[in-house]
Specification:
The chain is mostly beta strands. It contains 1 helix and 4 strands; from the N terminus they run βαβββ. Strand 2 and strand 3 (31-34) form a beta hairpin. The structure holds iron/sulfur cluster (2 copies).
Length: 74
């Protein structure tokens, strides 16, 4: 599973920070950020974000490299 990151679409609503099982999401530099050292890529945070600001780290949205992270179960 790929680690995740938060883009600048984040509105700091705090929703994701409450659901992360590894407490990898914290507030810093004006928005929420994910600690890639502890993020397990579980994707629990992805569906709770109202602005879809959480994306796989290293993979751009809509990139052609192939990984789409819809609601697939692992
Ligand atoms: S993918 Fe999982 S471990 Fe990583 S920040 Fe989101 S909820 Fe936390
Ligand atoms: S749920 Fe989305 S908008 Fe809310 S704090 Fe997390 S990344 Fe930001």
């Amino acid at each position: 599973m790929s680690k995740h990151q938060i883009t600048n679409k984040c509105t700091s609503c705090h929703a994701c920070g409450q659901v992360c099982p590894t407490e990898s999401i914290f507030y810093g530099h004006g928005q929420y950020v994910i600690d890639l050292d502890t993020c397990t890529g579980c994707k629990v945070c992805v569906p709770v974000c109202p602005v879809k600001a959480i994306i796989p780290a290293g993979g751009e949205e809509g990139s052609s490299s192939g990984t789409s992270y819809e609601e697939e179960e692992n």
